[in-house]
Design brief:
about 210 residues, alpha/beta, eight-stranded mixed beta sheet, 8 strands, about 25% strand, globular
């Protein structure tokens, strides 16, 4: 996913009114930044922003925050925002490891994790966004009735995620190894750039939804 060496990306992000580079300052204050009390949904690892921005257009009464670690990738999302501004979208450049420094208890209603880095080496398991370490982080700021939705083409990562959930206090609401073969589960599904590519290649998409 990472795009390398995009000249001026860091400067463009720092100067943009659509991007937040010091999100810790807004912990517990995101509703004020949006200037409304609408629910807040976040995507961790938003990539180029297609998924998040599509949702924002479909559901204008929901506030969306896209989190991306790499400036070169976030810059592409910023370009989309410059072309078609959305009042209910805020972009954030940060490492998800520090996400509990950014959101207050109960501040987020839904978390989206789409095609996250699988971190294939065992010693890096805690870096996976569905690891028990990250599930504990989400628990600190997700609304009591909130959910986490995860999609991936990586069967190994998906099986790992199911195991982590089973060992945690989270409950599995739904899971499938082939989202697009189930018309009921796929109804209303918004695809990411990667998802469109994988579906076109006939690669099955795994999806799960959890809550506490």
């Amino acid at each position: 996913m990472r795009l390398k060496n995009v000249p001026g990306s860091r400067e463009a992000i720092s100067d943009s009114r659509y991007c937040i580079t010091e999100p810790e300052e807004y912990k517990g204050k995101w509703h004020k930044l949006f200037n409304n009390d609408n629910p807040i949904h976040i995507e961790v690892g938003m990539g180029k922003g297609k998924f998040l921005m599509t949702l924002a257009k479909l559901y204008p009464d929901i506030n969306y925050i896209g989190i991306e670690k790499y400036s070169s990738v976030l810059f592409r999302a910023l370009q989309k925002m410059e072309e078609e501004p959305l009042d209910n979208v805020i972009l954030v450049r940060m490492d998800a490891e520090y996400i509990t420094d950014v959101f207050e208890s109960g501040e987020v209603a839904k978390i989206y994790l789409n095609f996250s880095d699988p971190w294939p080496k065992d010693r890096h398991a805690k870096r996976r966004l569905t690891s028990r370490q990250f599930l504990e982080r989400y628990d600190q700021f997700l609304d009591p009735d909130g959910t986490v939705e995860f999609k991936t083409d990586n069967r190994g990562l998906f099986d790992f995620s199911l195991e982590e959930i089973e060992e945690s206090k989270w409950s599995l609401l739904m899971s499938t190894y082939d989202l697009h073969s189930d018309s009921e589960l796929c109804e209303g599904n918004v695809m990411t750039e990667y998802e469109e590519k994988f579906v076109a290649e006939g690669i099955p998409i795994n999806k799960l939804v959890i809550k506490r």
